[in-house]
Write a structure and sequence with these properties.
Blueprint: E1 2-3, H1 6-26, E2 33-39, H2 43-59, E3 62-68, H3 74-85, E4 92-95, H4 105-111, H5 123-130, H6 139-150, E5 159-163, H7 170-178, E6 187-191, H8 198-202, E7 207-210, E8 228-231, E9 235-238, E10 246-249, H9 254-257, E11 263-264, H10 271-287
Parallel strand pairs: 1-11, 2-3, 2-4, 5-6, 5-7, 7-8, 8-11
Antiparallel strand pairs: 9-10
Helix pairs in contact: 1-10, 2-10, 6-10
Bound molecules: NADP nicotinamide-adenine-dinucleotide phosphate.
Residues 140, 163-166, 168-170, 191-195, 198, 211-214, 232-235, 271-272, 275 line the site of NADP nicotinamide-adenine-dinucleotide phosphate (NAP).
């Protein structure tokens, strides 16, 4: 069994990006600039944005945070997006989700210029992803592809089972693993809360990707001997022993499942660190105009 060390892979990829940015600087080329829009004071969102900004600094990108109170109206937010869409210095930006209930997330995502949509949530990028055309792939699935690539895990002809069908993780992951490319060429089964007899599917998976948000949901008997298990779950669970008062738990019972696996991602330190790296990669692509040429 090999542990997929997302933290180590993320460090390698960040060092590579930092070197490329340094060369861009000395060559007078555009230094990537990522902006984040943060609405309200959701603790997790604040942490996610702070981590993204910190990662930008580590690789030498410029970054900006646009903060608004949760009383901002939908129209005001759409105006901000329009301004950033037209700001030539900002290569890519994200709107940290969730947004307050009075703002329609879809409307906001659709307002982002696809060429700056480095989260890959705009339907233009989703459509391109399905057609295997140049696009920004949503950060978490993109990070998982990079992990699979880094460990040279065989995917062709394998049965990949994805549990969870969210727009940001499960659904794009299922499409990516079925595309005619590497990583990909899997036969994919997408499971969700209405799936009957889930264990029938998970126990037949060569590659099991779990994105539910239910700590400890996947038990040892749900996994096939030799499977590759990618645990996307990341839930804060109260933990009095920790200074912060909580610890992060995955969807998989690691101690039961790991001995059966050929590869497994731990939580924390597996998928999480790669999500931010994937966002940085998308931003670098945006600065280089690799996906859209305008
Ligand atoms: P989500 O939008 O809540 O989706 C959860 C999915 O799980 C849904 O499709 C749901 O099915 C399915 N589900 C729930 N209960 C189930 C059950 N009993 N059996 C089968 N399927 C079930 O969550 P998400 O945004 O995809 O996130 C999933 C987890 O990944 C969370 O813990 C989140 O924190 C974590 N995450 C981690 C990262 C990272 O960087 N590591 C990034 C993103 C998300 P229905 O569609 O039928 O409701």
């Amino acid at each position: 069994m090999e542990i997929i060390d997302g933290k180590a892979v993320a460090s390698v990829l960040k060092a590579k990006m930092a070197a490329e940015v340094a060369i861009r600087k000395t060559s007078g080329l555009k230094v990537p600039h990522l902006a984040a829009i943060l609405v309200g004071h959701n603790g997790s969102s604040e942490t996610y944005v702070a981590n993204k900004i910190k990662a930008c600094k580590e690789v030498g990108f410029f970054s900006s945070t646009f903060r608004y109170p949760d009383t901002i109206t939908e129209d005001e937010l759409l105006n901000v997006i329009n301004l950033i869409n037209n700001d030539n210095d900002i290569d890519g930006f994200i709107v940290q989700l969730p947004l307050p209930k009075h703002i329609a997330e879809n409307k906001v995502i659709n307002a982002i210029k696809p060429s700056k949509d480095v989260d890959g949530f705009h339907p233009e990028n989703t459509g391109r992803m399905i057609k295997n055309l140049p696009c920004y792939i949503a950060a978490t699935p993109y990070g998982i592809l990079k992990l699979i690539e880094h460990y040279k895990i065989e995917t062709k002809g394998k049965h990949c089972v994805v549990v969870g069908r969210s727009n940001i993780v499960g659904s794009p992951m299922s499409i990516l693993m079925s595309r005619d490319t590497y990583p990909g060429n899997c036969t994919v089964t997408l499971c969700h809360s209405k799936t009957q007899n889930l264990i029938e599917y998970t126990s037949k998976a060569d590659i099991l990707i779990v994105a539910l948000g239910k700590p400890g949901f996947v038990k040892g008997d749900m996994v096939k001997e030799g499977a590759v298990v990618i645990d996307v779950g990341l839930t804060r669970v109260e933990d009095k022993a920790k200074k912060s008062g909580f610890s992060l738990k995955g969807d998989v019972i690691y101690d039961e499942v790991a001995p059966k696996c050929s590869y497994i991602t731990p939580v924390p330190g597996g998928v999480g660190p790669m999500t931010i790296v994937a966002l940085l990669e998308n931003t670098l692509k945006a600065a280089k105009k690799e996906v859209y040429n305008s």
